[in-house]
Amino acid sequence: MTFVTDPDCGLEKHTPASSLYGGVRFRKRGRNKAKWGSAIAPRTRVKFLEYQAHAVFRKYGIPVPSGALAAKPEDLVNPPLPCAVKAQVLIGGRGKAGGIKFAKTATEARAAANAILGMRIGPYTVKQVYAQEKLDIAREFYLSITFDRSARAPVLMASTSGGVDIESVPHASIVRLHVPPLVGLQPYLLRNLARRLKLSKKLAAQVSDIAIKAYALFRQEDAELVEINPLAVLKNGRVVAGDAKLVIDDNAEHRHPEYANLPQDRTPLEEEAHDKGITFIQLDGDIGVIANGAGLTMATLDVLNLKGGKGGAFLDLAGTDNPETVKQAFEILLKAKPSVIFLNVFGGITKADTVATGVEQALLAHGKKVRVVARIKGVNEDRAKEILSDAGVHSVETIEAGAEMAVKLRRAR
Questions:
Q1: Measuring CA to CA, which residue among 61, 62, 65, 81 is closest to residue 242?
Q2: Residue 311 — φ and ψ, nearest 5°?
Q3: Can you give the pLDDT at residue 46?
Q4: Does residue 227 carry a catalytic annotation?
Q5: Is 130 noted as a catalytic residue in this protein?
Q6: What is the DSSP letter of 135?
Q7: How far apart are CA 117 and CA 69, in angstroms?
Q8: More confident residue, 286 or 185
Q9: What pLDDT is recorded for position 329?
Q10: How many CB atoms lie within 10 A of CB 276?
Q11: Where would I find the H helices in 183-322?
Q12: Cys-Cys crosslink for 278: which of 38, 228, 273, 321, Cβ 3.0 to 4.6 Å?
């Protein structure tokens, strides 16, 4: 059954029943202890600024260029020269946006910092720059370790085409070696890597050493991605991680409290939700979405698009059975000021009456000022219908009808 509440016109519509559900259960994560089912919590990622990734690389003995961090131009008192002054933002394309400038003197470095600080790159304002030693590069490679989920194993990726987006490199030019998770990165894999990259014995030794250390970082830091692009071969024969990208699964924050307060690419509302263990993402649309399970959440957004709407902020209720959690989630969504809220829940671990109770409490607390379309099916749905009916919510039936109604209400504003 689907419910519609409209404080202005009390719309009600009935259509033949159907359902669309694809759920993925996730573990609660956040800065508190991890446990199942008490909050909204799929996987998210901890991203590192370049200078922060360099610090972690140094911890594992991976050679990186020297550098100096600055929040003001005058902070660059003694930068390594010559240097590349780089904007520190959690997004690619810095060079194309003018966020990387070269300098031969300290005066030029400070002038470059002054030009970069405060500029907008994508959604970010540059607040810090990193003056990194300019490398005298002879060759550039690409090296990374990430997960291949279809193979259920880490994969070591490498290419002789370094310094460019790996997505632009032809598939046949990328070396992919799956690492057996129980035994790790073995010598035979490193010999295979050196052979396929056509490395000399001297280069093979250095690249293998870096790969071993990168894999140790990957495992011990619970990383989802360790990327070196370029892996630079200098004219003096040394191999250095010319750039560093590091992404860590924040399900592992309880093992890495030192990373809990790293600035992330979250909006203020996303940060508030994250601190409460709630999965909340802000998109470009203005129809708010609350669902449970990744599959159902994505399906709801898709159906809205098919019906001519555009999902805005969305919440994934996952496996909560606490009305207060639902109420808190609803209140965070209200702060995003959606034109309409589409609630689409399949009651299983998250019982239908639990969601209805939380929604009722939030609507009563906020004076029913928001238009809500609610579709709830599953465990205790009859009781949920009673609760929502008492709150002035009327029923319709399907996800399609719910999406159509949400779009209609949005256009009627």
A1: 65
A2: -65, 140
A3: 84
A4: yes
A5: no
A6: P
A7: 12
A8: 185
A9: 87
A10: 17
A11: 187-197, 201-220, 268-275, 294-306
A12: 273
Q: Print the SS3 string covering 168-193.
A: HCCHHHEEEEECCCCCCCCHHHHHHH
Structural domains in the chain plus CATH codes: 2-41+265-411 (3.40.50.261), 66-133 (3.30.1490.20), 137-259 (3.30.470.20)
Residue 58 Cα distances to 55, 119, 401, angstroms: 5, 29, 56
CB burial of 105-126 (b: ≥16 within 10 Å; e: otherwise) equals: eeebbbbbbebbbeeebeeeeb
Compute the distance between CA of residue 308 and CA of residue 404 in angstroms, rounded to an integer.
8
- 238-262 tens-digit pLDDT: 999 999 999 998 788 889 988 877 7
Helix (H) or strand (E) holding 111: helix 106-116
CA dist list (Å): 275 to 32, 35, 90, 251, 266 = 9, 15, 20, 13, 11
Q: What is the pTM of this model?
A: 0.68
Residue 399 has pLDDT above 70, yes or no: yes
Catalytic residue among 108, 224, 227, 381: 227
Alpha helices in 226-380 (DSSP H): 268-275, 294-306, 323-335, 352-365
Which strand (E) or helix (H) includes residue 230?
Answer: strand 223-234
Measured distance CA(210)–CA(208) in Å, rounded: 5
Residue 117 structure tokens = 């600080």
Q: What is the mean pLDDT of residues 293-321?
A: 87
313 and 339 in contact (C-beta within 8 Å)? no
Which of 130, 142, 215, 259 is flagged as catalytic?
142
For the chain, the residue count is 413
